[in-house]
Amino acid sequence: MTRAASLRERAEIAIRGGIITGEIQPGQIYSAPALAKQLGVSATPVREAMIDLANDGLVEAVPNRGFRVVELLERDLDEITELRLFVEVPAVAAVAGKRDALTKETTDRLYGLADEMKGHANAANLPDFIEADRQFHAELIGLFGNRKVAELVERLRNATRRYGLRRLDRETLVQSAEAHYRILDAVVEGDQDRVRELMEEHVRSNRGILAGRPDDLPTEAN
Questions:
Q1: pLDDT (tens digit, 9 = 90+) per residue, 134-187?
Q2: Helices then strands, each counted (H, E), the chain
Q3: Is the Cβ–Cβ distance between 200 and 208 less than 8 Å?
Q4: 100: closest CA among 71, 141, 143, 48?
Q5: What residues pair up with 59 in beta bridges, in sequence order?
């Protein structure tokens, strides 16, 4: 990765984190130079990162002024959840049957990301938890082998990353992290029905979190 790409990625992760924690709020306009000063980088990688986030539907450009976070409505969340249930759940279930894709290196990497999530959850580190979560799901759906499906799922997941997550406490984060182990265990075991059940539960519980109902999260007994 070049230095320019590294700065762009660093800026994108930092901006996503700011949106998640509420430091960057919906409706307000933020200029690239102001955000760059806050992040300690030049305006160019910040501007490029904001363009990437705009492509994900996370922010929108305001001509000659900067960018603002797009605010989601409850209906938007319902429609995104419905799409994820239609697309992401069966795709991840299908991964459970792809023995050639589930190499030791791949599964070690996924378990490592689950460990990262658990560590960030225990530390109540929401931005880093979300980034590890993003990488986990991107790599998992990538094993399905359909680039368009992977891109669609990541866009759908990214679209909700600005809504309600700052309300999550340590206990809720830990429960969410543990759910990823159960999903991955079922994938590795090749149990497609169990993966489908766990993924549907996971997607629906995320909708509960976004609606301010983290009690909808599944417990270990489920």
A1: 899 999 999 999 999 999 998 888 777 655 555 567 888 898 899 999 999 999
A2: 9, 3
A3: no
A4: 143
A5: 69
Q: For the full predicted model, state whether its pTM sits above 0.90.
A: no
Classified by CATH at the fold level, domain 3-69 comes out as Arc Repressor Mutant, subunit A (1.10.10)
Pair 162, 69: CB distance under 8 Å: yes
Run of H or E residues at 111: helix 104-122
Reported in sequence order, the residue ranges of 37-123 that DSSP labels E, i.e. its strands, are 59-62, 66-69
Burial class (CB in 10 A: 0-12, 13-18, 19+), 13: middle
pLDDT, greater one: 185 or 214: 185
Kindly report the CATH number that applies to the domain delimited by 74-216: 1.20.120.530
- CA quadruple 18, 114, 134, 48: dihedral sign: positive
Distance CA 117, CA 140 (A): 15
**Where, residue-wise, is CATH 1.10.10.10 in the chain?**
3-69
Tally Cβ neighbours within 10 Å of residue 31: 17
- Greatest distance between any 2 Cα atoms in the chain: 53
Identity (one letter) of the amino acid at 124? A
Query: Residue 28 to residues 17, 25, 69, 126, 135: CA-CA distances in angstroms?
Result: 16, 6, 7, 22, 28
- For residues 161 and 199, the model is more confident at 199
| Predicted confidence (pLDDT) per residue in 105-126, tens digit | 999 999 999 999 999 999 988 8
